[in-house]
Amino acid sequence: MSFAFFDLDHTLLPFDTQALFCDFVLKRERWRTWRHLEFVPVALVKACRLVRTVTAKRAFLGYLAGMKRETLAAYAKEFAEQCVKPWVYPELLAIIEEHRKASRVLVLNTASPDFYANEIARVLGFAHCIATRVELPEYLPSWPVVIGENNKHEAKIAAMKNALPAVAHASVETLRDSWSYSDSAADLPLLEFVGNAVLVHPNASLTAIGKARGWPILQPARPYSGKLGDMAAVVTQMFGLY
Length: 242
Hints:
By secondary structure, this protein is an alpha/beta fold. 49% of the residues lie in helices and 14% in strands. It has helices spanning 17-26, 36-47, 53-60, 69-87, 90-101, 114-124, 155-163, 165-168, 172-176, 188-192, 204-213, 226-238, and strands spanning 3-6, 105-113, 128-134, 146-147, 179-182, 196-200, 217-218. Helix 6 (114-124) links the parallel strand 2 (105-113) and strand 3 (128-134).
């Protein structure tokens, strides 16, 4: 048994799914847009690196405040089935299928919230999903609680080993025959965990690392151009205007 580990945002599809899910929700409940007023000051402080990423993530999720857990679950299911799958790069869908035919265990490992990441994993046929765990009471609070660590950097490896004994006890030979896919230098621990790392639209620094190590680089077509195009997509999605 070997594995294929995939990051989600900007790896399987060209967007940040937190912004994309926000776009999905606000198109159905437009009144929630005003709740971003609470997030803006946190975002500014985060830009100055004065608050942790997980704090900003909790603040951003404030637009869901007051939503019933059952409603959120229904939205997550519809989002994965109707919005995310059509946006996944066809090249990555083909790669997923190749690994499935090779009998590799497919694992989605993402910093995105688990309430929709689990649904995306289901729709795309992943065996497992490792994501940032968010506490879901009957009605969501203004700042949802993150359970444990934000699933990023080395935390991705720790969470995966904790959840999947087969990964925790995988032999050197198994990992040498396993694969990881990501766009971000934050995922270097995940990329270095296996014998076969593949980069998807990496930035300049990660591109340099990848070229030095002989890692393949994929650049599937995106619906925007460059970093500014990505930022414009995030902003419009945050306000349900994409």
